[in-house]
Structures are given as structure tokens and as C-alpha cells.
Amino acid sequence: MSGFTPDLELNQNEIVKQVERRYERIVGISFTISLLASIALGVVFWQGGQTQAEGALLFVVLGGLGFGIVAWGKYLVPQGPYVQEREELRSPADEKQAFVESLERGESLLLRRSFLVKLLGGAVGAFGIITLFPFIRSLGPQPKKMLYVTNWKKGSHLVRPDGSKVHVSELEVGGVLTVFPEGHAGGAISQTILIRPAFQDIVTKPGRETWGPQGYLAYSKVCTHAGCPVGLYQELTQQLLCPCHQSLFDVLSGANPVFGPAPRPLPQLPLAVDSKGYLIAQSGYNEPIGPGFWERA
Fold first, then answer.
1. Among candidate residues 152, 119, 288, 271, the one with its CA nearest the CA of residue 201
2. For domain 146-297, which architecture applies?
3. Treating both helix axes as pointing N-terminal to C-terminal, what angle do 114-130 and 5-46 enclose, rounded to 10 degrees?
């Protein structure tokens, strides 16, 4: 019987090691799933968000972390209860040595499972970063190139806010209308004011001989001072007025500012008439619209 005991203990130790390795894999898989779910959650946030997907992924992130931590504590950390009878506060030398050995065993356990520690750190770190995404998204969409270009392009039909096209016979002299590029009705950056000071072609500046067919002129409605909508047309003086700070623009000279704080003219949209008599854009604006800023001259 005495020769059988070491083999039995050896088998038990091997079984314990196999169980520990199995739970190490389980904990590692749990942390890995949580890490991947955090990355997927970040992708969903970055692409604009989707409530159901965000909720499901958040459940997986937190569930993976929680399950992994609980399993680690339950199956991979030495279990108690440990009872120590203490009759005096001063510990004898053998207990001090046992305490040091216990700390060393705990340290060796952590070092031996350093891969799990790294996975846990990666999962928690990724989740911490992803929690910043809702705050970042709340700041609004990225401006990208919206400060430089609009949705106007060659051949874009001029449409009203309801999406209907504007015919060349629609406005009388003195008429005014807010228009947008077809497919983008209501867009703040592309909003344009269409006016008809006369029936004959108008040339506002050299090089713009074809921009004002049959008396139609179109200018960006975004004021070059502070970005307010330039929505008032004074027919007698043939000027556009920005009601925010009283900037005046002369429509017959390319919307040059003649009064107020606006520093530069309103960009002009080159117009044309298609085969069916509808107004279209020859191209987009050839300069940035709206007020200047520190990155733009």
C-alpha cells in the first residue's frame, strides 16, 4: 500500500493540472470574446450606431468579463476556507515563513497565467476605450469636406424644399426662391437662393458669361460672415440682405458685399437650362461657401 500512495498522488496532481488547464482555456476564451465584442461595439458606434446591436454587444462584453473573472476566482485561485488560530499578535518564525511562501505561491500563479492577465487587461482596456465612443458621437458627425464642398455638381437640377424641379418660366422678374440640388433637398450646406433680376442673360463678372441664363442668378445662401441664411432680396436695389448682421450683397456684381461685416462675396452657382426647360447647375460652386476659418484663407 505504501508503494501505491505516490502514484495515486501523482495521478491526482495530473488531474488537477488538467482541470486547471481546461478552466484556463475557458477563461481565456471568455476574455477573448469580450475583447472581440468591444471591438465590434466600437465599429457599430463609429458607423453611426444601432441600438439593438449596441445592447447585444454590450451584454457580450460585460458578460464575458464577468464570467471570466468569476471562473478565474473560483477555479484557478486556491480555495479556502483557511483557519488560523491566533493566541497572540506576534507571529512565530514558522508562520512568517509560511506567509511568505503563500505570497510566493500566489505570485507564481499570476506569473504562470500571465497570458490570462494580458487578455483581461486587453478586454478591460478595449471596453474602457469604447465607452468614450458615445461621448465622441454626441459631438455630431465629422465635418469631413463639408466645409469645402457642397452637394451641387454638374447637371444637378434645382429643386424646391419639397423636391420638385424649378422650370425656367417659373419666376417673374423680382422673384426669389430657395433651392437645393436634386436628391439633397433641405441640406443646410447646399442651400442656395435663386433670384431673377431680369429676363435677359446676366453677366456678373468676366468669365461668368453663361452663368445667368434668362436673368436667373443663384448664390449660396450661407453668409460669408457668420453662416446665417441670406434670405431677403430687395428688388429695388437688387441686393441680398443677411438679417443677422445686416450684410448687403449686390447681386449684379457677383454678390459683392456693399455693407456690413461680410468679408467676401457670396459664391455664385453657374446655371444652365436643360432640354426640357428646367434649371440645372453647370457645376458645383468653384469656391468654399460660408464664413472663413483659421485653416482657410
1. 271
2. 3-layer Sandwich (2.102)
3. 20
Q: Is the peptide bond before 143 cis (omega within 30 degrees of 0)?
A: no
Q: What is the DSSP string of 160-199?
A: -TTSPBPBTTSPPTT-EEEEEETT-TT-TTT-EEEE-S-S
Q: Do 27 and 116 meet the contact criterion of CB atoms below 8 Å apart?
A: yes
**36-86 tens-digit pLDDT:** 988 888 888 777 778 888 888 888 988 888 888 888 878 777 766 767 666
Alpha-carbon gap, residue 216 to 198, rounded angstroms: 7
For residue range 87-138, list pLDDT tens digits in order: 666 667 777 777 776 766 666 655 556 667 777 777 778 777 777 766 666 6
Q: Give the C-alpha separation, 205 to 32, whole Å.
A: 65
For β-strands 279-281 and 232-234, DSSP reports them as unpaired
Q: What are the structural domain ranges in the chain?
A: 5-81+91-138, 146-297
Residues 54-68 as b/e (b if ≥16 CB within 10 A, e otherwise) read: beebbebbeebbebb
**CB 265: neighbour CB atoms within 10 A?**
19
